[in-house]
Structures are given as C-alpha cells and as structure tokens.
Amino acid sequence: MIKLTVNGAPREVDVPDDVPLLWVLREELGLTGTKYGCGIALCGACTVHLDGKPLRSCVTRVGEVAGKEITTIEGIAATPMRAVQEAWIAHGTPQCGYCQGGQIMSAIALLRAKPKPTDADIDSAMSANLCRCATYVRIRSAIHAAAETLAGSAAGSATVPPTATPSAPDAGTKPRGEAP
After folding, report:
1. 169 is a domain residue
2. 102: how many CB neighbours lie within 10 A of its CB?
3. In whole angstroms, what is the distance from residue 106 CA to residue 41 CA?
4. I need a labelling partner for 2 at 20 to 30 A (CA). Which of 38, 66, 116, 149 fits?
C-alpha cells in the first residue's frame, strides 16, 4: 500500500511502486483532469505539482512520491490560484482543452516564482507545454490577467510562495505564435 497526499487529502493505493503517477491519479483515484499526451515528459499535458513544483506525472513512478504533497488541476479550484483558471476562461484560452490542465499547472508554478512575469518569462516557462490548438497568445494574455488578479488579492499574494522558476527541457525554444 502506497500512501499519498493528493489535493490535501490522504490517499492509499494498492499498486506496484513503479506505476506512473499519471495512471494512479487517473485510474485509481479518478482524477482525470491530468492527461496523457506523449508519455515521455515532452508535452506537459500530465503536469501536476509535487510539493509545489511542477512535475511530469507520466514519467514519475508513484513510489517516488509517497509521502509528498501532490496537487492536480482538480485541487486548484478551492484555492486563490483558481484566478488562473478564471483567466483561462475569460480569455477564451481552451479550444479542445486537452492540454489545459497541464498548461494551468505550469502557469501557476510560474506565478508563484514570478508574480509579475514578463512575456519572455511566460514564453520560457511555458515553452515545454504544447498546445495543438496553438492558443499561445491567449495563454500569455491569461497569465498576465491572472497575475494582476493575484496581485490585487491579499489572499492570493499570501498564498503565492516563491519557488524555483520552472524551466523547460528546451530553453532555446522560441515563442510560438497563435494559429489564425
């Protein structure tokens, strides 16, 4: 039995310790907001937070995260960071929506590290999250809007502790434009 803390709640799963965290979240715990995209940690659809830092759950074995705090997209709605989800909706960011859970989790990590990110900060932090619908311009706009909302909220600024700036596997990736 592996003991986890997921979205603030203690959970136990009876799986081998080498099962990917993604499959435990989806199949054992029913948290389907975290998506399978590539299976090799390149697309970002499976991004969750482990002790507040972004993590690709498709390549992380559940035994490696026992006893640590795991936050999924489902755990965000009850926090001040829901401002990111609200900005996503207000800016019409999701199209198919498949990558959006991972995008939002990466955006939250960025905003915790840099509460007032520049376009370059956003492009760098988000470059490892792929969106087939190419809503990158809207993603950037939503992150700026969420940053403004969080800056104006006493509860938001109190819950945005600094963490390491998320980095992309390929930091040399140039910002992408949005499809017409």
Report:
1. no
2. 27
3. 13
4. 38
Query: Within this chain, do residues 6 and 68 fall inside the same structural domain, yes or no?
Result: yes
Specify the residue for token string 């926090």: 79
Q: Which two tokens stand for residue 158?
A: 């109190």
What CATH code is carried by the domain that includes residue 110?
A: 1.10.150.120
- Comparing CA positions, the residue from 64, 82, 111, 63 lying closest to residue 7 is 82
Q: In the numeric block, which tokens belong to residue 91? A: 């800016």
The stretches of the chain forming alpha helices (DSSP H) are 21-23, 82-90, 100-113, 119-126, 136-151, 154-158
Please, what is the end-to-end C-alpha distance for the chain in angstroms? 49
Q: Say whether both 114 and 132 belong to one domain.
A: yes
Give the number of other CB atoms < 10 A from CB of residue 60. 19
Contacts of 115-119 with CB under 8 Å at 24 or more apart are 115/147, 115/150, 115/151, 115/157, 115/160, 116/147, 116/151, 117/143, 117/144, 117/147, 119/175
Does 170 reside within a domain? Answer: no
Q: Which domain holds residue 125?
A: 82-158
pLDDT of res. 131: 92
Tens digit of each residue's pLDDT (9 = 90 or more) over 20-69: 999 999 999 999 999 999 999 999 999 999 999 999 999 999 999 999 99
Residue 40, domain CATH: 3.10.20.30
Note whether 87 and 154 are same-domain residues.
yes
